[in-house]
Amino acid sequence: MSEIKDENLEEQEVKETIQEESEQPKEVVEEVDELTLAKQQIEEEQDKLIRLRADFENYKRRVQLDKAADYKYRAQSVLTDILPVLDNFERALAVETTSEEAASLVKGVDMVYRTLLEAVKKEGLEAIEAEGVAFDPNFHQAVMQEQDDSKESGVVLQELQKGYKLKDRVLRPSMVKVNE
Amino acid sequence: MSEIKDENLEEQEVKETIQEESEQPKEVVEEVDELTLAKQQIEEEQDKLIRLRADFENYKRRVQLDKAADYKYRAQSVLTDILPVLDNFERALAVETTSEEAASLVKGVDMVYRTLLEAVKKEGLEAIEAEGVAFDPNFHQAVMQEQDDSKESGVVLQELQKGYKLKDRVLRPSMVKVNE
User: Which domains are assigned to chain A?
Assistant: First the structure.
């Protein structure tokens, strides 16, 4: 007989040996065999349970992460739609007034603007720093270049449109003029 | 022997009977017994698996429902903070102007207001109907009463502060004056 044999063959052989030696009726041997199978099945069922538990735990962990991300950026869509409102406010407030009536109106509008800024800030909206800082392609979009030797190369010379981020996520980059 | 005995006792007895009758060696009987136990254990493991699968499915279903609700009302906190901004806009726009400059400014403010209204409407914010409709405690808060015999009893006579809902959820009820 070859020295190399697989486990099943070995088992088969052991079973036959028992049968020959003990001369027990065939049914008992079958029951012993059934026990081996049953034990295998127990192990299989336990393995399935372990795997399913692991899947469940992974799923729960993923759900928690998703939920946290959804929560963090929950206001993103409405804030994105509000950016043009902030732009319009800035434009309206930049108007030069000639009468007291108009000046008082602009003052009122400025208060409304501040209330809105407060509300969106509370939700995590922040204006991106631009003028005077080093150009950063993650936050700034260069739409013009100029050469100003009195300032460092690569610095933002002027902000043409304000950029905004929601927490660590850029909603709209600042449109800027950069020093060559 | 007593007629009342627990299951374990009964089992024990059956095992002993088999041993006596068949006169097999003790080990084999033990193996047969082990098989019964193994089969029980298989059933138990399968039960555990079925229960865990059911738990997993329920969890997934709950997560989906939670996610849908979170998504539906995701803008609630920022919109709630924006309600005073809408109030301030209405107040600013109600001002009577005497000069052309002021009138033109108010026109600009009105445009900013409309942009903001558009943004929050897109997210599901709606003004609650009040004046002229029947008082509904789910949407209206009665802060004043008056008797106007020319109108139906229980009808909203005047809206003192606008109410808003986010989809089917009231963010702030309308403050109203009701007909007695």
Answer: 7-72 (no CATH), 76-179 (2.30.22.10)
